UniProtKB/TrEMBL annotation:
The chain crosses the membrane at residues 54-75, 87-107, 113-133, 145-167, 179-202, 247-268, 280-301, 313-329, 335-356, 368-390, 402-421. It is a multi-pass membrane protein. This is MFS transporter. The keyword NAD does not apply. InterPro entries: MFS, MFS_dom, MFS_trans_sf. Residues 21-426 form the Major facilitator superfamily (MFS) profile domain. Pfam families: MFS_1. CDD domains: MFS_ExuT_GudP_like (cd17319). The keyword Membrane applies. It is found in: Cell membrane.
Length: 442
């Protein structure tokens, strides 16, 4: 008699989580992206005021991801111990303080050190939020939640440009350079959001006062069933699972996505400035165009891919779109390049929206925390490679076309990797292969 009520209670609980927790997570991710990418708008200012060349800028922008990669896995494991409320807010407050410190950059070495420390401070935030979603929602609801969460990244692309451009217009106020105003105000805002998040985040289903007893029980049962399905692998060590071919494939595919994503993030403002005659604010507004298009595409796609029997074909299509966009960006005028980069951005963001539910579902529960962190940290090294590569090519050849060709090839290689990813279908979890099972899905 009571069985029909369970799905209803679970549905209500999921809706409450999406309504109460996801807006805060989206805001945190939005600020996270704002703080890690705002440096893309001040390349010329850093060169003029601090003496940072294009190569040094690309290297410094990428150093963030070295610190990020080194501390990602231990940070995510500490989140399991302390809970999201403590650890995610600690991460946010710490990175905000580093951003404030960037106001005082006066030489290239200080730029390098603070970009590295920013990566250390932010390490664990994104995979920690992904893990948090798996602790609250079963697989059937995670695709929608992931699309909402990643919408924060797309939204950051929409607001970063106008906000950063407006703050740069403060140049000279109080005798302070605009880029110093930008770092000081954005870093302070991050600290304040982190403090507020500490009062509202709820780490465990059992602690949610806004769920009634039936909703807690239904949601806990659904999450537990999902966890049991992901824990049915044979008894092998965490280390062996972490070097499983599926983890390596996930890491490689995500690396290709981040190559494109961060190349767009750090070099789009420079491409737009080639149009000529634009103010800092106008450059910021135009830089929001790829993000607006990406957000629309992400939400439109997520409405039916959650119900798709296999996410891999959709992932392959989005990666091909990304490859086409980066290739077309080597042709035509700056305005045509903006349109091509927009296409590449749509493909990259939509690929990430499909990728993370597959990673969440495909990893054995015993390595969910370190596995997600490993995929994210190593994959995010693409954020080191692409800005450094583009800066080097710009200094040595005067063009970034070679880098765009590399992005095109990387996206096409990721299409091949996507064919072999698990987690594409409901219940498809990473299991250690036995003698009767191939290590890769057919």
């Amino acid at each position: 008699m009571s069985e029909p009520l369970v799905p209803e209670a679970e549905s209500r609980a999921v809706a409450k989580f999406l309504r109460r927790m996801m807006p805060l997570l989206v805001l945190m991710l939005l600020v996270n992206n704002l703080d890690r990418t705002n440096v893309g708008f001040i390349q010329e200012d850093l060169q003029a005021d601090v003496g940072v060349s294009a190569t040094a800028y690309g290297f410094g922008a990428g150093l963030f991801f070295i610190g990020y990669a080194l501390f990602e896995v231990p940070s995510n494991m500490l989140l399991e111990r302390f809970g999201a409320r403590v650890w995610l807010t600690r991460i946010m407050i710490t990175w905000g303080l580093v951003i404030v410190a960037m106001c005082f950059i006066h030489n290239v070495t200080m730029f390098y050190v603070l970009r590295f420390l920013l990566g250390v401070a932010e390490a664990g935030f994104f995979p920690g939020a992904m893990l948090y979603i798996t602790q609250w929602l079963p697989d059937a609801s995670r695709g929608r939640a992931t699309a909402i969460f990643l919408g924060g990244s797309a939204a950051a692309g929409i607001v970063t440009g106008p906000i950063t451009g407006a703050l740069l217009e403060l140049h000279g106020a109080g005798g302070i350079a605009g880029w110093r105003w930008m770092f000081g105000l954005e870093g302070t805002f991050s600290v304040l959001v982190g403090i507020v998040a500490g009062f509202f985040l709820v780490s465990r289903i059992e602690d949610a006062r806004w769920l009634d007893a039936d909703e807690k029980a239904a949601l806990r049962a659904a999450v537990t069933e999902d966890q049991q399905a992901r824990s049915r692998a044979s008894k092998v060590s965490r280390l062996k699972l972490l070097v499983h071919p599926q983890v390596l494939l996930l890491t490689g595919a995500f690396f290709a996505m981040t190559l494109t994503g961060y190349a767009i993030t750090f070099w789009l403002p420079s491409l737009i400035e080639e149009i000529g005659g634009l103010s800092s604010f106008e450059v910021g507004v135009l830089s929001a165009i790829p993000a607006v298009c990406s957000m629309i595409a992400m939400y439109s796609m997520s409405r039916f891919t959650d119900r798709a029997p296999d996410r891999r074909p959709y992932l392959a299509i989005t990666l091909v779109l990304s490859a086409i966009g980066t290739y077309l960006a080597t042709l035509g005028s700056p305005w045509f390049g903006l349109a091509a980069i927009t296409l590449a951005g749509v493909g990259s963001k939509c690929a990430a929206t499909l990728f993370w539910p597959m990673a969440q579902s495909g990893l054995d529960l015993r390595i969910a925390a370190p596995g997600l962190a490993l995929v994210n940290s190593i994959g995010n090294l693409g954020g080191f490679v692409s800005p450094f590569l583009f800066g080097y090519l710009k200094d040595t050849t005067g063009s970034t076309n070679g880098g765009l060709y590399i992005l095109t090839a990387a996206s096409l290689l990721a299409v091949i990797a996507a064919k072999y990813l698990r987690g594409a279908r409901a219940g498809a979890v990473l299991n250690e292969p036995t003698a009767s099972h191939s290590p890769l899905p057919r």
